[in-house]
Write a structure and sequence with these properties.
mainly alpha; 0% strand; 193 residues
């Protein structure tokens, strides 16, 4: 099993998100993870500049880049299913933990510890996890806005509930991002120029 880790990571492009929704444009977890990493980096920078924090933007971007890696094994369990009740969530957390362990065994032991500190959520500080979670939700919100703009009404309620979820995080960096950067996602390319 050793040395298959990176080949397994390359399979992220085959795992589509939003499985219960009609999508105008498919989004896979590789694309989502890149966008989440960019937003998480921005949230850490916002923390440092506007809220006098001391976050490490590069490390937080790295956590975000790898945040959906367990889904290589588990697939993307839709949010309404994952959070349907506490027993399902608890069971899914166990499955995710087994997936992380399986992935870490797919690389040389000397490297596994480094990657465990990146992909095992239990190894990440709570304040860093909060920024990654906020970035993950903002990325989902962007997807909802893009789909709605393309006339896909399936995402109207998802946009509302995702915006609510971002607000409920009570993350000042996410609120700042929404206030100062989110409006541009509703513009056309010509309007952005």
């Amino acid at each position: 099993m050793n040395n298959q880790f990176f080949a397994m990571l390359s399979r992220m492009k085959y795992i589509n998100r939003w499985g219960l929704m009609r999508n105008t444009i498919q989004e896979n977890i590789a694309e989502h993870s890149l966008e989440t990493a960019m937003i998480a980096h921005a949230l850490a920078v916002i923390n440092n500049i506007y809220f006098h924090g001391d976050r490490n933007p590069e490390k937080i971007a790295l956590y975000a880049m790898y945040h959906d890696v367990p889904e290589i094994i588990t697939g993307d369990l839709p949010t309404p299913v994952k959070y349907f009740d506490s027993e399902i969530k608890k069971s899914y957390d166990v499955v995710e933990s087994v997936a992380v362990s399986h992935l870490l065994h797919a690389m040389p032991e000397e490297m596994a510890e480094v990657y465990q500190n990146i992909i095992d959520e239990k190894q990440i500080r709570e304040e860093d996890k909060k920024l990654v979670k906020a970035a993950d939700k903002i990325s989902a919100l962007i997807k909802c806005i893009e789909e709605r703009k393309m006339g896909n009404q399936d995402f109207v309620k998802a946009e509302e509930s995702t915006m609510k979820a971002v607000r409920e995080l009570k993350c000042e960096e996410a609120d700042y991002f929404l206030e100062h950067f989110m409006g541009a996602y509703g513009l056309t390319l010509d309007e952005q120029a």
